[in-house]
Amino acid sequence: MESLSGRPSTPGEALRNAFLTTFFVFLVAYPALDRQLHLGAMGSMNPILIYVILALGLNIVVGFAGLLDLGYAAFFAIGGYTAAFLTSPASPLPFRADFWLALVAAWAVAALFGLILGAPTLRLRGDYLAIVTLAFGEIVPRVFLNLEGLTRGSRGMSPVGRPHLPWIDFTANGPAVEQKELFATDQVLWYYLIFLIGALSIFIIVRLRDSRLGRAWMAMREDEIAAASSGIDLVQTKLAAFALGASFSGFAGSLFASMLQFIDPFQFQFDISIMVLSMIILGGIGNIWGVVFGGVLMGSFNLILTDRATGWLHGLGGAIGLPFLQQADLASSKFLIYGLALVLMMTLRPEGIFPSRQRQAELHAGQPAEAPTAVEAS
Amino acid sequence: MAAILEAHRITKRFGGLVAVNDVDFFIEEGAIASLIGPNGAGKTTFFNMVAGLFRPTSGSMRFRNREIGGLQPHQIARLGVGRTFQNIRLFGTMSAIDNVLVGMHSRLRASPLAAILRTPGQRAEEARAHGRAIELLGLVGLEERREEWARNLPYGDQRRLELARALASDPTLLLLDEPTAGMNPQEKTSLMRLVERVRAQLHLTILIIEHDMKVVMGISDRVTVLDHGQKIAEGTPYEVQHDTHVIEAYLGRAAVTPRANGSA
Lengths: 378, 264
Prior knowledge:
The complex is a heterodimer.
Chain A: H1 11-36, H2 42-64, H3 73-87, H4 99-118, H5 126-146, H6 148-151, H7 187-209, H8 212-222, H9 224-229, H10 234-260, H11 270-283, H12 288-320, H13 323-327, H14 334-348, H15 357-364
Helix pairs in contact in A: 2-7, 2-10, 2-11, 2-12, 3-4, 3-5, 3-10, 4-10, 7-10, 8-10, 11-12
Chain B: E1 3-14, E2 17-28, E3 32-36, H1 43-51, E4 58-63, E5 66-67, H2 73-79, E6 81-83, H3 96-103, H4 112-117, H5 120-139, H6 155-167, E7 173-177, H7 185-202, E8 205-209, H8 213-219, E9 222-227, E10 230-235, H9 237-241, H10 244-251, H11 253-256
Parallel strand pairs in B: 3-8, 3-9, 6-7, 7-8
Antiparallel strand pairs in B: 1-2, 1-4, 4-5, 9-10
Helix pairs in contact in B: 3-5, 3-6, 5-6
């Protein structure tokens, strides 16, 4: 793994690197661990990794370019529906494409919609931008819900094209099965497929961050007026952030639809936008590896822990003889716990678990981040 | 010599307030010109019109024979106008060298795709840019601090870094908005020496806004005085210093005609 900041590392950074390397190894080895320890959480880990890809994309918009986007799930939906339109028998299109083609197409279509959303919000910042993106996040699933002729509305679209893997030998599953496609039951293969696409996303994002465009994003986040006076075209730079940020949710959306073999508008509600935003805040806004860690942590909490905690609590209640613990149901208070954890986190460590150097400095200098005023172009 | 920047009857109104009123102005190529005047005289407004932050209400603003009145700040920067700000505006949580690299933005060409693929062309361009950035940091004496964050630099160094960032775009005209504000006399002298050295080395034309008369008079080829948005005097430092309108604007009428009202 590359050095996190590209600078000589301090002891603290070395520790952090060691931790994140361990975490990376853990992710690579997770399916084996899951099997050995009978965790049975593969079914949850796969969507968690998909949410991590979403978080990586959102991190471009919010973390690098400093544009608050509360409707990011809209692009997730657009990516998913693009894949479904191109591959599902339920699609109104006259042809069916291969999953891989659909994956690339979803990437491009999500980027295109990033531009479409970006264009009218160019002059907005902060709160105002957040409201407009929030609205966009509400509109998109509703459009998919109401375009019943095309999307089958609330009945959803199913099945969705599966990834074709001709080079993998499936005969191990049993001689009778001669499949060359990835089914939902091939959880380990799905895991590594998502993992690879996530790794590809990280590769692309790291290189973008360290490029002319990445510097322009951060300069714009720091001070729009100074950035413009340094020759940065704010319009272009913002649009690039929206488009490239959205594009990765195209990956996430098509993987999600194909893995579940089903897509409906309710998979892309507001809470997804908020969860993904929480992932990057928890992990450390702007820091790619922090976002990955925060994403896995938050996802595990949301998808695994809250489901199991009830069982553990019942077990504990039985063991120590407290009947009220035996009857507690944490599933219904999932969001309460989730909210409490976030509040706690923001109080104790507002910069996230692995903050980018920027955030850490801002939050520990005892002063709020300076909000640059909008460029006057009257 | 030819004028590099020419303002003709330039006016900027904010609602009922006329910040800059019908001002004619020009700078010859290679000169150091200063814009002085009391607070609120319209100096920074004039500056912001040159740099594209404000669009002139009327009049024309020409840079190298090209009308720049309605252009955006980044377009003007690309044409070769670099600037610093009265209240330092660095990218605080980026390193010194990244600040300079951002300044180079308009001189770099590599596309995002080239950056993702790290094409030989992109790598060579980045290497050249880094080399040039280190050179510029060396020029302002910040080579050793290149990895430090802009916000962690001492005040004087921040001013120098802002200068290096402005130079990174290879400007032909450099706008300095109160470059020595908040500095002690020693720092002022050393910064102004730096400005002169930079001008000679990079063949720049420089326009300075300054409060400190000593700074202005020592360095300028030509001084323009604004008061209440109007140009009240223009000429060599000596001429301006002895202009009654200027003395009046700075010190009040009594200083010019001490006995006119018979006061003691």
